[in-house]
From TrEMBL:
Any one GO CC term of the record: elongator holoenzyme complex
Pfam families on file: ELP6 (PF09807)
InterPro entries in the cross-refs: ELP6 (IPR018627), P-loop_NTPase (IPR027417)
Family indicated by similarity: Belongs to the ELP6 family.
Species of origin: Tribolium castaneum (Red flour beetle)
CDD domains in the record: Elp6 (cd19495)
Protein name per UniProt: Elongator complex protein 6
Transmembrane segments: none
Swiss-Prot/TrEMBL GO biological process terms: tRNA wobble uridine modification
Gene name of the encoded protein: AUGUSTUS-3.0.2_06496
Superkingdom, taxonomy of origin: Eukaryota
Length: 247
């Protein structure tokens, strides 16, 4: 994936990076990584199946407009397929179907079937890459789904990369032991692990947080400070924050 902005240059994601995991720790939001990846996917005319478990369509549209792309237009034109399990739950209250059934294993199987169908349909429309982004998989725990079924669901999704044109991006927020288990499983199979952390020293006017990047086969972990703005993210090496903010 060719980098076109400072954040993506720092991430240095390549087409050979088929499985990407994003881990957010503490009171910090990693959503900026996802919205910038979406921008790059669209710039490269890629297709996206987006499983939304955390924010709303309106949120991604508003952030996308600030970053220079029209999320809802891409949805309307078929470049992005969205799957919203939480919205489906609201619509299905009282019906006892899909996400409200007692068989939690069936929930993840039904969700994966929706994902697989969307990926196959997107792949059939163009020769370009197809991405699956899940934001964020931790919320499956909130639906009462057993950890073992979530791990199985992850394995289902990872099977999609058997198609050389498919990449999978999964975001996880870590605040419990179960979240840690999910993250550890993802880290083990990921080509790239991106971790977003708050500053150990607390809040800072100059720096929002720390981003670490670990690539498979490379023992070295690269770390950056980052500063969040309304229209983007600025990254810089540790210790260079003040200098870079005023460049």
């Amino acid at each position: 994936m060719a980098a076109v902005n400072p954040l993506l240059a720092s991430l240095d994601i390549k087409p050979t990076d088929r499985v990407i995991s994003i881990k957010e720790n503490g009171n910090i939001d990693s959503n900026f990584v996802i919205t910038h990846l979406i921008k790059q996917i669209l710039l490269e005319n890629g297709k996206l199946c987006f499983v939304i478990l955390h924010n709303t369509l309106g949120h991604y549209h508003n952030v996308g407009k600030r970053l220079g792309y029209d999320f809802l237009k891409q949805v309307d034109e078929g470049g992005i397929r969205t799957i919203e399990p939480l919205k489906d739950i609201v619509e299905e209250i009282g019906n006892g179907t899909h996400y409200l059934i007692d068989d939690k294993e069936q929930i993840v199987k039904a969700l994966f079937t929706s994902i697989k169908n969307s990926i196959e349909e997107l792949a059939a429309t163009a020769p370009n890459r197809v991405y699956l982004i899940i934001d964020d998989i931790s919320h499956l725990l909130d639906l009462g789904i057993d950890l073992k079924y979530i791990i199985s669901f992850i394995n289902y999704c990872l099977s999609l990369v058997n198609d050389d044109r498919v990449s999978v991006v999964i975001n996880t927020h870590v605040c419990s032991k179960s979240d840690e288990i999910i993250c550890n499983n993802l880290n083990y199979v990921s080509d790239v692990v991106i971790e977003v952390l708050p500053l150990k020293t607390g809040l800072s006017r100059e720096v929002t947080g720390v981003m670490s990047i670990e690539k498979s086969g490379n023992a070295q972990v690269t770390q950056f400070h980052f500063k969040a703005y309304d229209k983007g993210i600025k990254t810089f090496h540790l210790g260079e924050s003040v200098y870079n903010l005023y460049k």
